[in-house]
Write a structure and sequence with these properties.
Shape: globular
CATH class: Alpha Beta
Helix content: 10-25%
Distance between the termini: 45 Å
CATH architecture: Alpha-Beta Barrel
Strand content: 15-25%
Order of helices and strands: EEEEHEEHEHEHH
CATH topology: TIM Barrel
Strand order of the largest sheet: 2-1-8-7-6-5-4-3
Number of helices: 5
Largest sheet: 8 strands, mixed
């Protein structure tokens, strides 16, 4: 089972991520399905428990917006670490659409990105397989203060003084 960083701790990942179009295992109840599959599989998945969705950084979130309150997890896939579109998706989900569930960064995630991902609203991180999540924990808090407002601190420093 894969480990991930969630709320500042390393934990076992209980969610099974399914590829687009993949069969749903009979015994699994914590499933992350592709956002492209969500409209067709929604009824089947909601009957099994609280579902989750994963979406690529260039994906269209419109198909999942009506169902945000029924989703426990939204995972944003970063196909390569240089693809920054997932940061924008996170900000939209947290700030505009008020998503309250777990927002997870998956894919090509490196420790250097964790602080900035957290500032955009991510609260769980599944690092690349060749990275140790225990060693990456320090990357979540490299700075004691941030000047700019963000999802994790909506008030800029000059207003907090």
């Amino acid at each position: 089972m894969q480990r991930l960083i969630k709320q500042g701790r390393v934990v076992e990942d209980e969610w099974l991520q399914l590829a687009a179009g993949a069969e749903i295992p009979a015994a699994a109840n914590k499933l992350l399905v592709a956002a492209t599959d969500w409209p067709q599989r929604q009824k089947e998945l909601v009957g099994r428990g609280r579902p989750g969705v994963w979406i690529d950084g260039d994906g269209d979130i419109e198909s999942i917006l009506p169902d945000l309150t029924s989703l426990d997890v939204i995972a944003v896939n970063f196909p390569v670490f240089t693809d920054g579109r997932g940061y924008s998706l996170a900000r939209l989900l947290r700030e505009r659409y008020r998503f309250q569930g777990e927002l997870r960064a998956i894919g090509d995630i490196l420790p250097d990105q964790l602080y900035y991902l957290k500032r955009c609203g991510f609260d769980a991180f599944s690092l690349r397989a060749d990275r140790d999540p225990e060693a990456a924990l320090a990357a979540l808090e490299p700075f004691s203060e941030s000047y700019q407002a963000a999802t994790d601190q909506p008030v800029p420093l000059f207003r907090r003084r």
